[in-house]
Specification:
Blueprint lengths: L11 E5 L2 H4 L21 H7 L22 H15 L3 E5 L2 H4 L10 H16 L3 E7 L5 H7 L6 H17 L5 E5 L9 H5 L11 H24 L4 E7 L3 E3 L4 H24 L4 H9 L10 H7 L4 E5 L4 E3 L33 H15 L3 E5 L17 H20 L3 E7 L19 E3 L11 E3 L1 H11 L6
Helix pairs in contact: 3-5, 7-9, 9-12, 13-14
This protein binds 6-O-phosphono-beta-D-glucopyranose (BG6).
């Protein structure tokens, strides 16, 4: 299918991953444990992470831990990057694992082996003219900071993060220009363990500690933005939001108001602070209503103003439909933000509702509110793949999903939205974040690794590999 609308010249096409979901090598290179290492694989992951008595120990007798080996990018990055280059990637979004650089998080000196590993990865990318886009923290906080400091509840962690950011900016200043601070920062509202490094053990933890932890992350992000600008001339530093437009279930004004409240809190609160550099009025009202009193030190609010991000990056998988009063049967499945089932939408095998128009709506909403460039750094379909007898993987369902979403992004560009790039999620199969499964595959590249840990780790090109190669080659003209 040939389309008329055009993507801008220099549009950054590529793929995205996170260190904890693909690297493996969990006890190699002087690396410390991080929060993802103690989360078991399979649907049990959710139960474990929600258990108020979860003590972060690894119990190999009872559970499997797929992140420990993952897809072994740690040893195979050259082969994988060569495949990315063959697809024509202009960019690759990845994360640096904090616990490879500072194994416990609170050391004074970094781990040289960890720095060297990322030096090698960046060199390999640059060899193929692939521009790295690097997330500083993607659901992989050093476990020691979680256990000893209560994650981002503690203001001390801001200092540790500053040291980490300064270290990697200094080391990689000539190799990396695009940086993201915290992956899906707003997800901390739904799964604080991943984003904020603690879990809600008691009901009273829900408000005060959560928003205090957010305040600390906002400071850390602002510090990183300032430092990055000073240390890396020409750098561009973005925030990263999990975005899903919130639809009211119907035109009942009560439901419309409820959807608006959900949208403000989940979709706009973090972006407002990171892009506009200040707490929005609605959140101050929300704080009052819920008796939240943030501990704000002198200079904090100025710092937020000085550390505004240059662009917004986002993930988009699905939309969310909301109703004020809902019964448990109405609930949809989904990533962290599922509302109730939308009768107009089909869902993936994991119940995530597929909504390309919701993607166009999201891009319009974000651009209209902030007027800064947008970078889509996650989007894709998690699905079961079958290897045919001839060894091929005919993933037409993935191609259909991506085609419709890329078309929606093109439509948004026609609507006037300024876009920097698109990196589809899990460009190579990796461990899923929510369920710790290998069978939930997103990649253009198949990896022979299974939920029970078996597999040769051999890489195979799926049908979508060739399709995406064509999309990039024609700058999105061929879909
Ligand atoms: C995003 C995360 O929420 O969704 C990724 O940033 C994650 O880390 C992706 O992998 C897809 O979710 P899942 O649970 O299917 O892996």
């Amino acid at each position: 299918m040939i389309n008329k609308a055009k993507f801008p010249e220099g549009f950054l096409w590529g793929g995205a991953t996170a260190a904890n979901q693909l690297e493996g090598g969990y006890n190699e290179g002087g690396r410390g444990l991080n929060i993802a290492d103690v989360l078991p694989g399979g649907k049990i992951r959710k139960t474990v992470r929600q258990n108020p008595n979860f003590d972060y120990t690894i119990d190999k007798e009872t559970y499997t831990y797929p992140n420990h080996e993952a897809i072994d990018f740690y040893h195979r990055y050259k082969e994988d990057i060569a495949l990315f280059a063959e697809m024509g990637f202009k960019t690759y979004r990845m994360s640096i694992m904090w616990s490879r650089i500072f194994p416990n998080g609170d050391e004074l000196e970094p781990n040289e082996e960890g720095l060297q590993f990322y030096d090698n990865v960046f060199d390999e990318l640059l060899k193929y003219n692939i521009e790295p886009v690097v997330t500083l923290s993607h659901y992989e906080m050093p476990l020691h900071l979680v256990k000893e400091y209560g994650g981002w509840r503690s203001r001390e962690v801001v200092t540790f993060f500053e040291r980490y950011a300064k270290t990697v900016f200094h080391r990689f200043k000539d190799k990396v220009k695009y940086w993201l601070t915290f992956n899906e920062i707003n997800s901390g509202l739904k799964i604080p363990l991943y984003g904020l490094g603690f879990h809600i053990q008691k009901e009273e933890d829900k408000y005060q500690p959560t928003f205090q932890a957010f305040h600390h992350q906002f400071l850390a992000s602002a510090i990183a933005v300032k430092l990055g600008h000073e240390m890396i001339p020409g750098s561009k530093i973005g925030c990263m939001l999990l975005y899903a437009p919130v639809y009211a279930y119907d035109s009942n004004p009560e439901n419309v108001m409820y959807a608006l409240e959900e949208k403000r809190l989940f979709n706009y609160f973090c972006g407002d602070v990171q892009v506009r550099g200040k707490y929005p009025r609605f959140i101050n009202q929300y704080f009052k209503k819920n008796q939240i009193e943030l501990e704000i030190h002198d200079g904090d609010l100025e710092l937020l103003k000085e550390g505004k991000v240059d662009f917004i990056s986002l993930s988009y998988y699905m939309s969310r439909t909301e109703k004020k009063e809902k019964s448990p049967e109405e609930h949809g499945a989904g990533n962290m933000i599922s509302g109730i089932k939308n009768p107009f939408l089909q869902a993936s095998d994991w119940g995530w509702e597929i909504d390309p128009t919701g993607f166009r709506i999201s891009l319009n909403e974000l651009y209209e509110r902030y007027e800064v460039p947008l970078f889509v750094v996650e989007n894709g379909l998690g699905a079961y793949d079958t290897v045919e007898e001839d060894g091929s993987i005919q993933d037409d369902y993935r191609i259909d999903y991506l085609r419709e979403h890329i078309q929606a992004m093109k439509d948004a560009i026609e609507d006037g939205v300024e876009m920097m790039g698109y990196t589809s999620w899990g460009c190579i199969d990796l461990v899923s974040a929510s369920t710790g499964e290998m069978s939930k595959r997103y990649g253009f590249i198949y990896v022979d690794k299974h939920d029970d840990g078996s597999g040769t780790l051999e890489r195979k090109k799926k049908k979508s590999f060739y399709w995406y190669q064509n999309v990039i080659q024609t700058n999105g003209e061929y879909l």
